[in-house]
Amino acid sequence: MATLDAPVFPVGLVVADKPCLVVGGGRVAWRKIRSLLECRAAVTVVAPEICEPLALLAAEPDGGGAAHHHLDVRLRPYRRHEASRYMLVVTATGNPRIDHMVSEDARGAGVWVNCADDASHCSVLLPAVHRDGAVSIAVSTAGRSPALATWLRTQIADLLGDGLGDMADLVAQARQQVHSTGTSTESMDWTSLFDGPLRDLIRSGHRDEAMDVIAEALGLAPGLHSTSDHSASPEPSPLR
Q: For labeling, which of 49, 104, 135, 211 is most exposed (least CB within 10 Å)?
């Protein structure tokens, strides 16, 4: 069982195309399924019955579009030890006996598991998350109060507003230009840049002007404009 008095170690788990199991088909399970699908996980759902939103998605010919093409719904009870075949398991049946059995199977096989509403049977805790493009804001109370985590997440998201994803994309493009010269941006005064007019320029749609502000801050030549494909992500770099 989890040690609830120990601090949790925050981490971003890459689940794209990875096999993930959700046991349960109710509303709580549906929220977990939807979140996993948004991250492009290959989700298998095991439950004797499923809620209407999940049933509608599963019935769509293309599985709800490209973002949901890795969905496999199996209308049956959970089978002992099948959790061992997955990278991540979430159990949300509402039946403590079944949830604890799934958790026991997963932890016994060294598989990360989240047991909804029962932190003591989790090896991984799922935070409340706000997403804006590549930016994720996650809040955890170590399982003590999911409602508080959700409230805090909403407060932070409202305070910061939109445009964070676009800001991350533009800064990444500029950093890639710097890194291509073999130079690090580690000594950059990022706080001054982010506290300046950058976000307002992005929110108002002035992306080229925003790139000029970033270029000046990084010591790049003016006229460094964003790529036409705003959704494109630059290649990762070992430099900071």
A: 49
Q: Which of 146, 141, 112 is nearest to 20 (CA)?
A: 112
SS3 of 147-175: the string is: HHHHHHHHHHHHHHCCCHHHHHHHHHHHH
Distance CA 83, CA 91 (A): 10
**Rounded to whole angstroms, how far apart are CA atoms 235 and 227?**
14
Q: What is the mean pLDDT of residues 166-194?
A: 90
Q: What is the pTM of this model?
A: 0.82
- Per residue in 116-175, pLDDT (tens digit) is 989 999 999 999 999 999 999 999 999 899 999 999 999 999 999 999 999 999 999 989
CA distance 234 to 219: 20
Q: What is the DSSP string of 161-214?
A: -S-HHHHHHHHHHHHHHHHTTT---TTS-HHHHHHTTHHHHHHTT-HHHHHHHH
**128 CB-near residues (< 8 Å, 6+ apart):** 138, 139, 140, 146, 149, 150, 152, 153
Phi then psi for 19, rounded to 5 degrees? -75, 120
